[in-house]
Amino acid sequence: MDKFFYITTPIYYPSAKPHMGHAYSSILADFFARFKRIQGYKVFFLTGTDEHGQKIQKAAKENGMDPKDFCDKISKTFFDLSKTLNLSNDDFIRTTELRHKKSVETLWNILEKKKEIYLSKYSGWYSISDEAFYSDDEIEDKDNKKISKISGSQVDWVEEESFFFKLSKWQKPLLKYYEENPNFILPESRKNEVVSFVKSGLNDLSISRKSFTWGIKVPSNKDHVIYVWLDALTNYLSALNYPDTSNIHYKSYWPASLHLIGKDILRFHAVYWPAFLLAANIEPPKRVYGHGWILSGEEKMSKSRGNILDPIEIIQNYGLDPLRYYLIKEVSFGNDGNISKDKLESCINSDLANNYGNLCQRVISFIEKNLKLNVPENYNFIAQDTKILKIYEDEFNKLVDSIDSQNINYYVNFVQNQLFVANKYFNDQEPWKKKGDKDRLNTILYVSLELIRKISIMLYPIMPNSTLKALKIFNITENIIDFNSIKNHEYLKINEKINKISILFKKIEKND
Fold it and tell me: What's the pLDDT score for residue 150?
């Protein structure tokens, strides 16, 4: 039977140009999508832009533009970024699309029909920047302004007529759902945060606004605009042609396998979203993973702080795959991390140029000189060869489990260790001294080739461009990469031709 995997990034809010945090979420999602594809899954990978709300209307006005024209312009920068990052996304959704509007209106009508929505008046703190409501104990005074303790954004007191969702009614069902689905929220620290928040008591949620016009109108009352988060979250359904739940796309991919998000929007995804879905009798996603932030220095990046790192600039200076590798390897997944020029350059020189690229070059150059680029014949594994190859088979299930539980750190550490082992093996075996022992020479070279093949397949979801160059050695193209084949220790065919490759990574000269 076909196996399906549906992964989403947050849909990005295009009130300003993309920054490194957007790139990080997207690269992580692409890593999972590519891994599941080479594992044999049919994958649907979604990203896009969230284009409604007061913040967008305000930004458009400041730029002297119509909101839709403004969104068209900024959304394109996010679409272009997905190409620059070499994302393998299957769809790019915009909340200004008709298919999305239809989904949002349907969900609203269902909630209204089920009497989960009522009209009242909202009085409370609201952040335009976050498009979020905050309680009194989540607010502090700073520089004569009211600030959200969670995001640091300014909040204002708002009073207006509003439709409310009966969120309080779903407090116990949500807690029950978390208990019955212990891996619904990861990592564990984020789950504990959400459970604590819900246990402290849920108030009904304001889900419409009257003070601005840029958004999807409430179907039954055109004076109201649907709350941007109810609107935005529904994108995960609208990309599957909801409300047509009979279509093969929806049937195959919903519930989503993984919503990958930044920790700052955890509450919307882990509290509001499952509550909306349960209330509408729609199954919630299987998992929400709240990753950490990419910091600029010690602070979260934001336009207001003026500390935004531009991923395009870093890619232009250092290349895409080194950036992808750095973000996945050097930032402990789930925690905050930062990026610096020195760390990135050290990572490129040590891991990529010296360990991986140099291994490929040394082995292939040696085979060219001694075997005329043929896969060695008459190899005969001895105990140390079998041991070094068999670890991939022994660890295989753990590696798959690590990805399925979003433990990227385990996966990357394994690859790093095996790169060290492969280099040590080639050095210690000294094939240049074995030219008089043809059988042993062939075996060393065969094992070295197999190690390069296995490591390249494992690195493919992280650095697709560079590893595809390396896999050309073996005539392995993207459409035939098979993760399961890392268990195979005799994949290469005797006397088959292999190919030379150019240098994968250039070392960066560092000034002392």
Answer: 80
